[in-house]
Predict the structure.
Amino acid sequence: MATEILMPALSPTMEEGTLAKWLVKEGDTVASGDILAEIETDKATMEFEAVDEGVIGKILISEGSEGVKVNTAIAVLLEEGEDASAADTASPAATPAAEATAAPEATSVPATAAAPAATAPDTSPDWPEGTPMKQQTVREALRDAMAEEMRGNESVFLMGEEVAEYQGAYKISQGLLDEFGAKRVIDTPITEHGFAGIATGSAMAGLRPIVEFMTFNFAMQAIDHLINSAAKTLYMSGGQMGAPMVFRGPNGAAARVGAQHSQDYAAWYMQVPGLKVAMPYSASDAKGLLKSAIRDPNPVIFLENEILYGRSFDVPDMDDYTVPFGKARIWREGTDVTIVSFGIGMTYALEAADKLGRGRYLCGSYRSADFASDGYGQHLGVRA
Amino acid sequence: MAAKKPATPNVSADELLNHYREMLLIRRFEEKAGQLYGMGLIGGFCHLYIGQEAVVVGLEAAAKEGDKRITSYRDHGHMLACGMDPKGVMAELTGREGGYSRGKGGSMHMFSKEKHFYGGHGIVAAQVPLGAGLAFADKYSGNDNVTFIYFGDGAANQGQVYETYNMAELWQLPAVFVIENNQYAMGTSTQRSTKSPSYFARGQAYGIAGEEVDGMDVLAVKAAGEKAIAHCRAGKGPYILEVKTYRYRGHSMSDPAKYRTREEVQKMRDERDPIEQIRDMLLTGNHASEDELKAVDKEIKAIVNEAAEFSKESPEPHVDELWTDIYASEDV
């Protein structure tokens, strides 16, 4: 049966083109892969190849024709032995794209993307009243969080520079090699791009890596894997696989370490769909949030602060203490002014609160968020 | 160049015919994809695998259930060769609900947990450490699976490849690095990209064994694949195969391929075509008749046409899909 050869789209943006030159003439036999014509697109002159074999029955658009719309019939292809008169009754090679790709009617935005629901903020305490407390540094709290999760799940492992034998550049992983062995506490060469990719691949295969960056400044060498590999695989695979993992390490300014070791990346990572970001202030937040991060089925950017590592806070002494993502913490109750901060910023927020005097303000910390979450104020019960 | 004669006692007529069928499926599928692109049914980027079929078909013939594979954006052939459904692949190319990623991945991003196919990656060479991570997971779990990590001669100049070589050998990961050297990184020939004479030899700097393979000869690829896999399964760490191949089409659909002559492409098609080589072998060895091969051609054409029809009829994804699969609410 005779078929029409249609003007092809030869680039992602091409709508029409010039049929510059025919390289076949009527009566020529063509095989799959033979060059039929040269076509000028908006970007270049392209060779147009035959897909099916047959005989050129009729050329419908002469060479030199400009502005030939994509999907216009430009020639008729006959099957071997078919009479040329069949060219007049040719059928299109296939249904043109226009009908088939009609977009579905635009529908209302689903609830998940709608404005934040006006539910009351979760102001419940992080631990039950009467829970015994112990004093711990942020450093110890982070180590305990990893150790507890590694005890509970064989798939969890820690990877990074100096995390094993050196016990951590900032001693966060102290004791972990002794308890879990070299299979699960892995020293890497200095190769952020490479090991971030390897860890992400292992997460796609079902493991739960914790990647320690000696500082998030060094993660700049690996950021492609954080964004293009870890954050986007779930979407690109239609939900078949993702990267349940944690990238953690010190972030933001430390003490007199220069511009290349002082960047705060919180705002950067917050803009990336697919990533969750946590930035704790206290030891209890560090512990509870890191445990949640390790259990989370998504990639979590966990931003610590070097100056906070050695500070001590009350940490609830209980078996499985976690802080859910998306919940803020109210440090002081008040009525007149709201002070909001997060991470080490809480140090200064609380100092400011002290200076203002009790009873006049609400001071809270925002601890974690993701690209799809609602605004800061929601969690603290702030109303505009 | 005449086809290298296989060690025929090791290859049955059935196997030869299977290789022919699988390579032909990729060839016809890709030609159809090119046609659907021309009609505007496939949008965006589309990188065809025509000419390189023997690489994936040969290596898949050496693999076992449980082995993993990961590649770049020129991925349609890899998916078909590992047994993914042509209908689901074509429908992903047209961005429809029936596609492997429900229309959200497109030509470059498809995955199949069931077939252990881990994508479909659009950042050149990113799949190399990711693939080593898949191999890491197998070693961690204590099984004997192997991961095939495919990348091109272009990707082979990226730094992360060498970071990965270093760790893969250090940790003895069961990974076969497959460099599909088709001689052109988009429009830049290997001669214009590097002074080093071979890509596989770069692995020696890290202690990784490797070799060069004729990628137009499916039997040579399979034999090399078996050797590489045996090395990995024996716990001896990674292995590198530099497979010399050739792509007949442009880098992507909008590439006029002015960086090489038409004669160069034609010569490769006439003298080295991987499908024609096996066809000749089947006919001259009396392993199959012209009629039998015609029947195979017909069968493949039907599969491809069915895939194309499915890819046109499957509905566009609902607009709500824009907001799904960004965050997982539970383990996937």
